[in-house]
User: Which sequence fits this backbone?
């Protein structure tokens, strides 16, 4: 009976905290996924214990800070989100209101990126220099002082990779990586976060066009519930002239494959093809800046720039209004099920999407690019090799327990 009362009281406290957080001025908290909401509630509980306050009171303080920021800066500002004070740059202000102190990890996270990079480089170079000097002195090598200095420098240079690897191995265990908060897109990606999966490629042959279509199809089948578009960003191969005799046949074959996919699955597939341009440095007609250029011109086009494409074929409605682009190599067709929605849900969160400065160019907070960890996939139809097992063991060693226990945005087979 007493256990039932305790359990009921704990559930009631959690419900009261959740109800307070749901009043988030920016309106994001109710639409976040379950793990992100649970993380926010856990942080409220932790801070309540550290400040010796009631959990509901702690949540209300975070809410008040967000409401005040919303009144000062507008509800479109990330500071109007309650999570800004629980997990982000507003943590110091939140702790001050609670009368609590930040620990060393939290103070470190609040430092500027430039200062953290400077500190990282200073530690690496200091350890390398110490290793070089100690090594030369330990072995008492009979060389003049300048010879010993050169040998110490060479030894330090040799030790650089080892020291960096050692530091990188222990940093995740020291700083405890955190799960990025994200929205709940389990029912599909909304129009406000419209996403396009783009595959930069070259049209080399009719058989190659068929293979590219199969790649798009496999990507779609793994993420068909996301409701996103799938596009081939294609160029012709480099040539001494702007046009080749087989160009039109290759383009028609690619368009035919896109039409087949749209007929089979009811739309969602697009071919965006660029013409060759003269490159004086290579003395050839090529696709401008190749892969990087394709992605850059696609982004400029989505932002309202002129179309760089010679041919745009397929379900073009899936391209219009796109906000996020997932770029995959043409040989990568093993996208984890649900990964597209997970990535869109992460970058669409108000603490993650990019916030620029007054010039509209400098990113002051959030992210422009999310790059999930990519490793070799373990064999699905055969026993994994020793090399594959070793690589995955290294992933386990490099990543802290707290981070591995969480569900990643994209699993290690991506």
Assistant:
């Amino acid at each position: 009976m007493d256990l039932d009362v305790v359990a009921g009281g704990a559930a009631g406290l959690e419900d009261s905290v959740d109800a307070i957080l749901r009043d988030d001025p920016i309106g994001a908290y109710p639409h976040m996924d379950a793990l992100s909401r649970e993380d926010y509630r856990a942080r409220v509980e932790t801070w309540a214990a550290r400040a010796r306050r009631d959990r509901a009171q702690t949540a209300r303080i975070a809410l008040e800070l967000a409401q005040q920021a919303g009144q000062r800066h507008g509800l479109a500002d990330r500071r109007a989100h309650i999570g800004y004070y629980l997990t982000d740059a507003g943590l110091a202000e939140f702790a001050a209101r609670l009368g609590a102190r930040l620990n060393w990890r939290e103070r470190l996270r609040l430092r500027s990126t430039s200062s953290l990079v400077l500190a990282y480089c200073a530690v690496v170079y200091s350890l390398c220099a110490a290793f070089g000097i100690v090594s030369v002195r330990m072995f008492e090598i009979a060389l003049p002082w300048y010879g010993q200095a050169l040998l110490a420098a060479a030894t330090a240079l040799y030790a650089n990779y080892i020291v960096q690897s050692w530091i990188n191995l222990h940093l995740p265990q020291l700083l405890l990586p955190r799960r990025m908060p994200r929205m709940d897109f389990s029912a599909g990606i909304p129009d406000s976060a419209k996403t396009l999966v783009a595959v930069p490629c070259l049209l080399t042959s009719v058989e190659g066009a068929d293979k590219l279509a199969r790649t798009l199809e496999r990507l779609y089948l793994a993420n068909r519930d996301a409701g996103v578009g799938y596009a081939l960003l294609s160029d012709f191969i480099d040539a001494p002239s702007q046009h080749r005799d087989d160009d039109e046949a290759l383009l028609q074959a690619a368009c035919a494959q896109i039409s087949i996919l749209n007929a089979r699955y009811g739309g969602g597939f697009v071919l965006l093809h660029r013409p060759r341009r003269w490159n004086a440095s290579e003395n050839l007609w090529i696709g401008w800046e190749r892969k990087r250029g394709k992605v850059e011109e696609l982004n400029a086009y989505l932002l309202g720039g002129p179309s760089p494409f010679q041919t745009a074929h397929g379900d073009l409605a899936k391209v219009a209004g796109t906000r996020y682009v997932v770029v995959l190599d043409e040989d990568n067709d093993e996208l984890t099920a649900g990964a597209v929605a997970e990535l869109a849900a992460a970058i669409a969160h108000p603490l993650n999407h990019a916030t620029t400065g007054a010039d509209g160019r400098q990113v002051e907070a959030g992210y422009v690019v999310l790059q999930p960890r990519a490793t070799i996939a373990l064999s699905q139809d055969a026993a994994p090799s020793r090399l594959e097992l070793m690589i995955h063991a290294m992933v386990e060693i490099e990543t802290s327990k707290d981070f591995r226990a969480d569900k990643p945005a994209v699993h290690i087979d991506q």
Notes: The first strand starts at residue 195 and ends at 203. The first helix runs from residue 2 to 21. The chain has a mean pLDDT of 86.
